[in-house]
Specification:
This protein has 153 residues and is an alpha/beta fold. 42% of the residues lie in helices and 16% in strands. It is built from seven helices and seven strands; from the N terminus they run βααββαβααβαββα.
Length: 153
């Protein structure tokens, strides 16, 4: 994700809540709010397109992604650094130092971010224990994401 100047907070909050209702998923409000804080969000995923594309479309938030990158289309899978490098090439104006991967898999998302040299944030709603893979940041609820990103800008 990359960030530029945010709009006024009340606008962001109201617009995000409206959009979350539109997609019928209030848990998506923090994610959608990132759009109005001017973050560019891409979905990067392993798996075959026949399975992942309908899942992404049915999520209700796919229209807000700047890019959707599937491992089979890229030719490499997370955590392979080449997967991330190819994604980075396809994102206009991408800058590693302004990016972070937020993911729920230590072995593919977080290790992949480490391999690619970007900040990592583990989304761990069940508070699973950590192994040898250590993210830069940890959250247990998506509502923690915006304050986290504000604190590291």
């Amino acid at each position: 994700m990359q960030k530029v100047a945010p709009p006024p907070a009340p606008f962001c909050r109201c617009r995000a809540e409206f959009l979350a209702l539109k997609v019928r998923n209030l848990r998506s409000a923090p994610l959608i709010c990132l759009i109005f804080y001017n973050f560019y969000i891409s979905d990067i995923t392993n798996g075959i397109p026949e399975v992942q594309k309908p899942r992404i479309k049915d999520s209700g938030v796919s229209e807000f992604f700047s890019g959707i990158f599937l491992s089979e289309d890229i030719g490499y899978a997370k955590p392979d650094e080449r997967f991330f490098e190819e994604c980075f090439k396809r994102i206009d104006g991408f800058q590693k130092e302004e990016s972070i991967i937020v993911g729920d898999s230590l072995s593919s998302d977080i290790q992949g971010g480490i391999n690619a040299g970007i900040l990592t944030c583990h989304f761990n709603p069940k508070s699973n224990p950590y192994n040898k893979i250590k993210p830069d940041y940890k959250i247990s609820d998506l509502s923690e994401l915006i304050p986290l990103l504000d604190s590291i800008k």
